[in-house]
Design goal:
heterodimer, A: 138 residues, alpha+beta, four-stranded antiparallel β-sheet, two-stranded antiparallel sheet, 6 strands, 36% helix, 19% strand, B: 275 residues, mainly alpha, two-stranded parallel ribbon, 34% helix, globular
Chain lengths: 138, 275
């Protein structure tokens, strides 16, 4: 039953939006599906999870887009577990989604943001011109 | 067995001994692996998958073990050193003695957030950051910028009054004492303090700022206080929970210590006072 509901929701969205946007929505929905309690219908309606952005904020290029691989659990260190990717001047900002649909990044790890765009802007503010470096492991 | 004291009560000699042991651990290469370990768990602990160090029931026993290991590393350098704690409900201003040049150093400067006073200022040459999220290798702070107020004593009391340790779904959306203390829900204690300090403390590499240890020592003290006030309550969940460390399961990265092993710290250390 839930799959039917899920499918018709996608179909409805597909009718409302262009094919490319619908694909983005579908990807976002996969990520939401593994987000657990609190990540249900409320986040499906959150434009932050399914929309791309590409803008210059305080002199830095920030880009965000849904990515495939949202069903991958756990820490690859690449952010692929979130179903979303943010880059600052081309460098990936490690981020993850909370169960309530909010977002955190490695730069702002103890503070939640409503959308990936707000997360990216907060990181730019914190960086003060510094560049992200790849995650240090071992 | 050591006694962990309120940092505000340390003598000048005790402050010096702590700072010198931290600097020596940094110099001999023993400090940075703690930063790396913390960041690895920060990055891999997720609400919908395996989670050990954060956003999960084992947040408290994981950090208790992690602090013990750090404390033992300091004691290998100077056996007289015990971790001090920072009671941020009491010492809550940017002018508090914890930020003095004789202890942890002060706020970052306005231009770039760089800490320029005290033993951990970049210019000393003894505190260059090697495990980073960005290109800056100097310690940064922005006290009170990310959030204006530290948690109050009534805030802490309200969290101590929550009698259930943790609850399904055992992540950042859980009700219960652990999550209110960690700060994803409710008045927000632990997370808020990270944000209040700012700089590296707001990031996954937060142990780059030595105040991390004093902050988490107080978080540990609050857990200890909760345990004392709630003798009939214990760590949850007890068994059979996917992606989460149950009471008797081993915790990574040690793999030889369980939450149950961490519940009674009295043989390892005590606190100078109750909350």
């Amino acid at each position: 039953m839930s799959e039917d509901t899920h499918g018709s929701e996608l179909t409805r969205r597909r009718m409302l939006q262009g094919a490319g946007a619908a694909l983005a929505v579908a990807t976002g929905t996969i990520a939401i599906g593994v987000a657990g309690p609190g990540g249900g219908s409320a986040t499906a309606a959150d434009p932050g999870a399914s929309d791309s952005f590409d803008e210059v904020f305080q002199g830095r290029r920030i880009q965000g887009r849904p990515v495939s691989g949202g069903g991958h659990h756990g820490g690859t260190g690449t952010g692929t577990g979130t179903g979303y990717e943010v880059r600052i001047d081309g460098d990936e900002l490690h981020m993850m989604r909370n169960a309530d649909g909010t977002w955190i990044s490695v730069v702002n790890h103890y503070q939640t943001f409503a959308t990936p765009r707000a997360l990216a802007r907060a990181a730019v503010n914190d960086l003060q011109g510094a560049t992200l470096v790849p995650v240090a492991t071992a | 067995m050591g006694v962990r004291k309120n940092q505000a009560t340390l003598t000048a000699q005790e402050k010096r001994a702590f700072v010198n042991a931290v600097l020596a651990l940094k110099a001999n290469g023993g400090y940075d692996p703690f930063v790396t370990t913390h960041n690895q768990f920060i990055l891999s602990d997720v609400d919908n998958g395996e989670r050990t160090g954060h956003r999960s029931p084992s947040f408290l026993p994981w950090h208790r073990k992690y602090l013990l290991q750090f404390e033992q590393a300091l004691q290998a350098i100077d056996p007289s050193v015990n971790l001090p704690y920072w009671d941020w409900t009491a010492d809550r201003s940017t002018g508090s003695s914890i930020w003095g040049a004789d202890f942890l150093g002060g706020n970052g400067r306005a231009s770039d957030g760089q800490v320029t006073t005290g033993p951990f200022a970049y210019s000393t040459g003894g505190w260059t950051l090697n495990v980073n999220t960005d290109s800056r290798t100097y310690l940064r702070r922005q006290l009170g910028a990310g959030v204006a107020q530290l948690p109050t004593r009534p805030d802490a009391e309200s969290v101590l009054a929550i009698t259930t340790y943790d609850a399904a779904p055992w992540n950042s959306s859980s009700a219960g004492f652990r999550n209110a203390l960690e700060g994803w829900r409710g008045v927000n204690l632990h997370n808020r303090v990270h944000v209040w300090v700012g700089g590296q403390m707001a990031t996954g590499v937060s142990p780059n700022d030595p105040v991390f240890w004093l902050h988490h020592c107080f978080v540990d003290k609050l857990w200890s206080e909760w345990q004392k006030r709630n003798p009939g309550q214990t760590y949850l969940p007890t068994a059979g929970t996917p992606d989460v460390v149950d009471l008797n399961e081993p915790m990574k990265p040690w793999n030889n210590v369980s939450p149950a092993d961490m519940l009674d710290h009295s043989a390892l250390y005590t606190y100078d006072t109750g909350f």
